[in-house]
Amino acid sequence: MRADRPAHDDDGQSVSLWMAETEPRRAPRLEGAIEVDVCVVGAGIAGLSTAYCAACEGLSVVVVDDGAVAGGQTKRTTAHLSSAIDDHFTAIERVHGVAGARAAGASHAAAIDRIESIVADEHIDCAFERVDGYLCLAGDATPDWLDRELAAARRAGLEVEIARRSPVATLEGPCLRFPRQAQLHPLRYAAGLADAAERRGARIFGATHVDAIEPRADGRIRVASHASGAHVDARFAVVATNAPIHERVAVHTKQVPHRTYAMAFALPAGAIPRALYWDTLDPYHYVRIHPGEREDVLVSGGEDHRIGALTAGAAAERYERLEDWTRRHFPVIEAERYRWSGEVLETIDGLAFIGPTPSGPANLLMASGDSGMGMTHGTIAGILLTDLVLGRENPWARWYDPARRPLAAAPHYVSDTVETALAYGEWLKLVEGDPHALAPNTGGVFGWGIHRRAIYCDPDGKLHVRSAVCPHLGGLVGWNDAEKTWDCPCHGSRFDRYGRVVQGPANADLDDVS
Does the pLDDT of residue 335 top 80, yes or no? Predict the structure, then answer.
């Protein structure tokens, strides 16, 4: 680790490469009452893209977030901009057919194009660069599988070819080469996008916790913060909070929270060709090269798992496995610079949920289900949701509709539902032990039934006691030792070490039962 950069932020959570290089962009708190065409809740990539696209159309826009600009999962991405779908085109075609696969490929390619044009038009200094992407065989995948994926990707309209090998000698064997993929610095892009939206009249507010999103009698949507007494009345509201905070069941049963890990290593400048590299292991790995002035940085990610699927302390093992894989395949890397983790919402069919909220009026819109492709899915949201606001036809709308129920994804839906039910089964277990035996800066869950407690021992040895029951739908949280947070395995809600909500769908803190 570099000594001049902290491993964790003030909340005890890990610091990504992007966070270390870029100060967060703060915004003023929302006050009073405002009327606009569009109110966006969430200032991540999806919310900012929607605000920018809507403002470019001359619509009045307000963005509200409870933290800094891009202060959620956007600052934890590895920022692969790819039209090569993470879940692979063979799977997308099996669920959505050729037409759906073509829509997926076209929309992600269009998202990369839109980002490129925004960077150029708005003069955003974010190291945007077009690069090739290489999908490399590993594990049980065979050359026959690669042939099938090549055919499916071509049917989806992508430019792709088989290469005998990637530019990295240790990633052996044939691979698929996808030209004109891209990469950038996500926080610098987000800050530039926010600036550009404001130049077009959008207003961005931070440090404002939204706790009510309600249809009004006049047809508008009221977005309110009871703590500040402020609200926004809008013709359209867009909830872009990663996991939607306004919808309790319909969407959350169709996506599953996973934790993903990333590490950054020093790399001699020019030692490895800049490209996106992915393998086919399960869990799989992904790599990119971030250019620097005196040295490059290799960013490696992967070792994903469903939240709640690991025992306490096992995150360290995931980092060890990720480092071992990275040093084996990229032996030229030098010292580790940063390590961090993020949360990915995997949908049952590989595509995000972008459009009208299933349980709400037509003017209550949402974006969720990044499926590991948050930068492009977020940009698709900006394009698609602006078309919906303006009443324009969009060729991707049906494929991203949050109300969709693809029959071909039913087995995946059933297996995910069973895993969620097993997570609720934690209620039946008795957790014994002495909370006073907790090491400083660690946490644990103790007790039984409704008396289950989430207990954190701070660096001074003081115990902080909260209910372990997630206020969303009653799941039991677990301690995330890598991020010093309480995570709910059912639908992905997260709380800081003191029980304050940091990510939905829960929109309230863990109950204080001390």
Answer: yes
Q: Which domains does the chain possess?
A: 429-503 (2.102.10.10)
- The contacts of residue 389 (CB under 8 Å, 6+ apart) are 37, 38, 54, 59, 235, 236, 365
pLDDT higher than 50, residue 56: yes
pLDDT tens readout for residues 375-384: 999 999 999 9
pLDDT of residue 413 exceeding 80, the answer is: no
pTM of the full structure: 0.91
> 114-140 as b/e, with b when 16 or more CB fall inside 10 Å?
bbbebbeebebebebbebbbbbbbbee
pLDDT, position 421: 47
Contact predicate 13/55, CB 8 Å? no
Residue 431: count of CB within 10 angstroms of its CB? 14
DSSP conformational letter for 384:
H
For residue 169 the two structure tokens come to 């000698």
**Residue 129 one-letter amino acid:** E
The phi, psi pair for 39, rounded to 5°, reads -115, 120
Residue with tokens 């800049």: 274
Residue 311 phi/psi, 5-degree rounding, is -80, 165
